[in-house]
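Researcher: Here's a chain I'd like modeled. Treat it as a single chain, no partners, no ligands.
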Amino acid sequence: MIDFAPVRRKETALEDIAEGLTRDDLASLAGEMCDVFLELIAGADDSDVTFVPEDPAANDTFAATAEEVNMPWTLGHVIVHWTASSEESAALALTLARGVDVTGRSRYEVPWEQVTEAAFLRERIEESRRMQLAMLEAWPDKPDLDKTYSPREGARPANAVVRFLGGLNHADAHRDQVRDVLAQAKAARSAPSA
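Model: Modeled as a single isolated chain. Structure tokens:
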């Protein structure tokens, strides 16, 4: 597993980590990330999926509504978010690897409000693994690694490898959040009722 913490602390660039990685390396890393999250939620039950944790630092600048900006995320919300982000990164990486310009986003996120079962989360992670690996498999034998794009103004240009890794970095950033939500849910379950 790659340690993405230095990237998030801005001590190293994602491009430096991407140096020399192959499509097979990316497939292994994507599989490992899915395994990590499956292990994290292995003991989760349905009540954990919709449990609303305490999160005073909650700040979703991309929230769909103003009411959701500071709303804590449920376990279901976190899982559907990171899987959608990883799939989007894989899709954009495929576009770049084929030498095609990226002209917009490529994202679909399961509505988190509809996610109520732990079994669904496990299925969602496995589906995301399949999708990410399929997109990597669709890369040409000689991917275009010179084609880049910047996802937003001021962002560094990313090639296919860096874009794919960006999705894994994003997923990794949600690991502690999953641990925290589950710890709070478990504590709430074991607390004596008033």
